[in-house]
Amino acid sequence: MDAVSERPEQGRERLRNQRASKISWALALGAPPAAAAALATLRSEVTDSALALLMVLVVVLVVTPGRRLAALVAGVSAGAWFDFFLTRPYESFAISRSSDIQTWAMLVVVGVAVGELAARERRHRNESTTGADALAAVKAVGELVADGAAPEVVTEAVREALVPLLHLASCEFDPSKAAVTVPYIERPGHVSYGPFFWDTRADGLPPTPTTLPVRFERQLLGRFVLQGPNPAIPTEASRLRTATVLADLAGIALAKARPGAWPSCPWRSQRRLEPR
Q: pTM above 0.70?
């Protein structure tokens, strides 16, 4: 599969996502034990409830980048290290009081809840910034189809549009009409593994090549073969739906180029009436 040169905006977005993921995991793994160890020096002067609130603040700061799994790890880690450093018996993971169990549970719940909110906010922000670019790509390809551009011109335009849209490492058009293999993108905006769906919002595109079928009137005319980035970048359903629209436009262009593909219109087959 030929590599596709990375566009500047795609490279910047990829670097931002990679940087945010690394920061999330570094904070999730390192911040809770460091904060709990620092607060241990104050446990004789500060009440348990105040220490718990400080740990909650640490969890909120850690999960702000919006990675769900990192947020869960941060919550569990904060609860465990709070128990180890700040509850009796000290420097032990044993929990002897029901109030300590409640504090541990609160830290986990806060981590998961705030992480979910941050992830949704980040997803909505990405969707809003992507909408205009996606619309521009569909408009540009649609104009090519309307102007009667050659199929190879349209498929190349779609290929170029799919790369930044889906954060792809590579993309190629395959005119094969063989049966579509999994994983593949379906019209509602999800990746299908037969009876199962791949969660692209959490995991991005699958590590294996993904198929985007190109059809016209249910007839398979080819497919785009998509290779997602490594590491994966979360991909919203709206991006997948836009990809299917672009594939439909490619299907129209391919169908128009086939002899006899378009049924003749009744009014065009009739002899034109000349004025007397």
A: no
